[in-house]
Amino acid sequence: MKFYDNRPRWTINSRKLGLRSWGKWSMLILLSAVIGLTTTVIAVPLLMRSNMFLSVTASDPNLQNMSYHNLQHVTVQLNNSVVQAVQKVRPSVVGVINDQEVANNATGVATLQAASVGSGVIFSQKGYIVTNYHVVQGAAKIEIVIDRKVHVYAKLIGTDPYNDLAVLQVPSKYIQTQNVAQLGNSAQLVAGQSVFAIGNPAGLNFADSVTAGVISATERTVPVIDEATGQAISNQIELQTSAAINPGNSGGPLCNLSGQVVGINNSKLVAHGFQGIGFSIPINEVKTIIHQILTLGHAVHAAIGIEGESLSAVPAQYQPNVPVHSGVWVIKVMSVNAKQAGLEHGDVIVAIDGHKVTGATSLESILLKDYQPGQHVTLTIYRGQQQLSLHMKLGNLPIQSHFTPSGSGTNGSNS
Q1: Angle at CA 8, nearest 5°, toward 7 and 9?
Q2: What tens digit of pLDDT does each residue of 9-27 get?
Q3: How does strand 253-255 pair with strand 386-393?
Q4: Which residue among 36, 180, 261, 406 is least packed, with the fewest CB closer than 10 Å?
């Protein structure tokens, strides 16, 4: 690497710099000082009388009577809103320890060992906690750490693998008023808004770590990965944030500067050269899933009842003869409702109730966000060159089976 010095060069011929030159320079300096002093003595009183220049000291007796016509006050205060918001939310953030049974080859006896540590948020005085499904997936027992010191086993109330959420419960005697988080409104978020995340990155040794950033985008389509298989089981619309989200932050809150939880952190983009791209499930979606789990024991999601593929991903030899380039190509019709509606193999779904369907991810997102099982919808499809409208009743996505870890001597409910 090359470095360049851009400073100007000044050249002096020292052989010609004698006493006569020094005398001339001394007279010039003295004359400049006299002119500057005279100008100051004359100009300052004139400027003060015109209110264009103010001389203010703490002991000035005329301070109260001085004209501020051309003077503006600027008040600088330390912005401690983030500090106050963190203090408000922090007691509601818990550690979630995934204890799994590990067989001892020597004795043949299985023992519980901590497989991973994530985060969670207490949202009810009754001891209910929301976290990510992948944080507790495969656990034999789930241990909760409250206020960094209280360890208690939790009961699993229900899960939603499709949205990567789970609801747990600990005895209410461990919950104080300050431990309950305030849930905000994610629909009010805008790109550029300041937010922060709290969680346990790298485990409990870094408990309650705070990272700050902004909302980078309010709607990003993110795949939900099944930790057991490594396969994407659904897609969902999430918040994108520049606040650092690391392993252990999963299940913890993304918060606004009012100390309200606006999202549940669950993933980040991991790729060479990328950083500061984290994702959080919008709290409005979380509220809906929580309500379903507490009411039914599980979440419900609308489904057409097909196996399909994005039209753009269909190999050339199977491409249907349709006048569109996007949509969902129906591979197999599985539900009774879809069959009764007249849907067939080879059809291309291009809209639901007028909502444009561009591919499999688009279809899943529309169903997850806007519809409930039992609703009647109109599908716009292409069958060859013919456009058709099919009317059908939406069904349910299959309920994913899950473990039922025990807590405090009792078993969690099945979902």
Answers
A1: 120
A2: 333 333 334 445 555 555 6
A3: unpaired
A4: 36
Burial of 385 from C-beta contacts in 10 A (0-12 / 13-18 / 19+): exposed
305, 395 in Cβ contact below 8 A?
yes
**Residues labelled catalytic:** 134, 164, 250
Residue 108, token pair as written in the block: 């043949």
Residue 68 confidence (pLDDT): 46
CATH of 183-296, one of 2.40.10.10, 1.10.1660.10, 3.90.940.10, 3.40.50.2300: 2.40.10.10
Lookup result for tokens 């023992």: 111
One CATH from 3.40.1080.10, 3.30.420.10, 2.30.42.10, 2.120.10.30 for 302-396: 2.30.42.10
pTM over 0.85: no
Q: Model confidence over 81-111: pLDDT tens digits?
A: 889 999 999 999 999 999 998 887 777 788 8
What distance in Å separates the CA atoms of residue 406 and residue 353, rounded to the nearest whole number? 44
